[in-house]
Design goal:
With about 260 residues, this protein is mainly α. It contains twelve helices and two strands. It has helices at about 15-30, 40-50, 55-65, 95-120, 125-140, 150-160, 165-190, 195-210, 215-235, 240, 245-250, 250-255; strands at about 70, 75-80. The protein has a two-stranded antiparallel sheet with strand order 1-2. A hairpin with a 3-residue loop joins β1 and β2.
Length: about 260
């Protein structure tokens, strides 16, 4: 990047690598760093930003993961042609009750349509898979588990029945975020017997509508399920959010890491 001024030092604080990556990203998106430009070397960037080489390495890795730069063996790191940025979320917003509710709102929009399509397109095998998923979820809860993976599997069985690979891929991508939100909602629901019974009844209502091939009823049942999940979050004991809920909500950040368990 000949002729350009050094980057400003990054003030000490959390997530230094993210802040370095954001600064470099801004340079690329503004055009000050153009396609084909070579980034300064790792030691040079570390000196300019006043951070460690490890921080720079993590920042550059993040830029590679979103397609802004690439490494060329024996040559260095180069800026790529600008492209539509991939869907991503800032993990710093994922540590609050409000963030969990917002994630459930995303689910509400998707799950309602998925359930409606599943009702139209389901086979008998699909219906059995959804029914089996409910049974597996019940067994997991009775055995003392949190039922998170089983709950996710129930909704995935519905998505499979919708026979839309684009919707399925979208849900698979979002699963890294929604899995964490499901962990929070289920932990809250497990604290009250009435909540747990409501969830099971709502699952059965979705299954019944899909089995009846009633698209309108399936959409309504799925929409209602997510609305009620939001209500249950809002009705949670304040102590839940001061203790267990806060810990689980912070874990949503971990779920966003590449390769995090789904």
């Amino acid at each position: 990047m000949s002729g350009s001024s050094p980057f400003p030092a990054i003030a000490p604080g959390a997530r230094l690598s993210e802040r370095v990556a954001d600064t470099l990203s801004a340079e690329i998106r503004s055009g000050r760093l153009r396609p084909g430009d070579k980034l300064p070397t790792e030691p040079e960037l570390a000196e300019q930003f006043s951070v460690s080489r490890t921080v720079v390495r993590e920042a550059v890795s993040r830029l590679k993961s979103i397609g802004l730069v690439e490494s060329r063996q024996g040559s260095g790191v180069y800026v790529l042609e600008a492209s539509i940025p991939p869907l991503s979320f800032d993990a710093s917003y994922a540590v609050s009750k409000e963030a969990v509710i917002q994630m459930v709102e995303v689910r509400r929009a998707l799950e309602a349509e998925v359930a409606g399509l599943a009702a139209q397109r389901r086979t008998e095998a699909d219906v059995q898979a959804i029914r089996d998923a409910i049974t597996t979820l019940d067994q997991a809860v009775q055995a003392g588990g949190d039922g998170v993976r089983e709950d996710v599997a129930f909704h995935r069985a519905i998505a499979e029945a919708a026979k839309n690979p684009f919707l399925l891929s979208t849900l698979q991508y979002l699963s890294r975020f929604l899995h964490g939100a499901t962990r929070v909602t289920r932990a809250n629901e497990a604290r009250r017997g009435d909540f747990a019974r409501q969830v099971r009844d709502e699952h059965e209502a979705i299954l019944a509508a899909i089995e009846d091939q009633d698209s309108a009823a399936a959409r309504a049942a799925a929409f209602n399920h997510m609305n009620n999940a939001i209500r249950r979050i809002e009705e949670a004991d304040p102590a839940f959010w001061r203790q267990e809920g806060a810990v689980l909500a912070r874990a949503l950040m971990v779920d966003q890491a590449p390769g995090a368990p789904r």
